[in-house]
Amino acid sequence: MPFPKSDKIWMDGSFVPWDEATVHVLTPTLHYGYGVFEGIRAYPTDRGPAVFQLVPHMERLLQSARIYPPLDEIPYTAQDLVDIACELIRMNGHEGGCYIRPTIFLGYGEIGLNPLPSSPSIAMATWEWGSYLGEDSLENGVRVMISSYRRIGKNTIPPAGKANGQYLNSSLAKVEALRAGYDEAIMLSEDGYVAEGTGENLFVVRGETILTPPLSDGPLGGITRNSVMTIAKDLGYEVHESSLVRTDLFLADEIFLTGTAAELTPVNEVAGYELGKRGPVTEAVQSAFIDTVRGRVERYDDWLTYVNG
């Protein structure tokens, strides 16, 4: 099903109607995936819609662009993009929250593998989007498999950036999981360590201790991941970055996934090994996360950008 349209999309400095936000079929990014993007969520709060970690997301977008020149030549600062996102949300009337997708890509002009002669373009869209892994997944959890596709190597495509083309790796793993009857896939690194889901970071719970793969094992340094680590520590849990192998998943007390799209989703089964319903640690961290993004936790209020000021 196509996702719902909004009224406007911002492109290279102008707000244009949704159906007019188009690019040429020979734009190099379409052919080679040479572009970067972000996924961001706004939530309803008592003070109107608020965007979770908007500034860090826009900063990471520009950091990703630095990895892929000439995408870093766009004439906008992170604060410029924050202001544009808020204006776009207001313009599209997303009082109940929304998903935000900024992207920087190569404009029409060159079609070879050399990106340097092309000029970068930038666009930002917002739309209403529910739970990424299913409406009941936040409570009942999801079934995951161990993908046969390995996470891209650190010296193949830099995992520190969110580049369009690298998600072909994730899409293949996602299709494999869906065709096998699972909801999601866990990808291992080239060395056989647990890296991440196809679009989510992963956490393993052992007793009162929470473990997550270190960035050296290939996961994206998720902004939601960092936020959840802080929340869990503040709740009194021990949180460590630790290399994990597949048997650590099979023997875990609890597992949950985090990400802008997935939010905080429990895992109830890994490759036939049942974990059962959402566990107490997952539920506690998830509850605190939901309260945070809804503007109900004062200590994390600076993580929110209130669209209406």
Task: Walk me through the structure.
- Helices cover 27% and strands 27% of the residues.
- It is α+β, with helices and mostly antiparallel strands and 309 residues long.
- It has two domains: 8-127, Aminotransferase class 4, branched-chain amino acid transferase, N-terminal domain (D-amino Acid Aminotransferase, Chain A, domain 1); 137-293, D-amino Acid Aminotransferase, subunit A, domain 2 (D-amino Acid Aminotransferase, Chain A, domain 2), CATH 3.20.10.
- The strands form two sheets. Strands 8, 9, 10, 11, 12, 13, 14, 15 and 16 form a nine-stranded mixed β-sheet that branches.
- The two termini are 34 Å apart.
- The mean pLDDT is 95.
Helices, strands, pairings?
Elements: E1 8-11, E2 14-17, H1 28-32, E3 35-37, E4 40-43, E5 50-52, H2 54-67, H3 78-92, E6 98-106, E7 120-127, H4 137-140, E8 142-146, H5 167-179, E9 184-188, E10 194-197, E11 201-206, E12 209-212, H6 223-234, E13 238-241, H7 246-250, E14 254-259, E15 263-270, E16 273-274, H8 280-293, E17 304-306
Parallel strand pairs: 8-9, 8-15, 12-13
Antiparallel strand pairs: 1-2, 1-7, 3-6, 4-5, 4-6, 5-17, 6-7, 9-10, 11-12, 11-14, 14-15, 15-16
Helix pairs in contact: 2-3
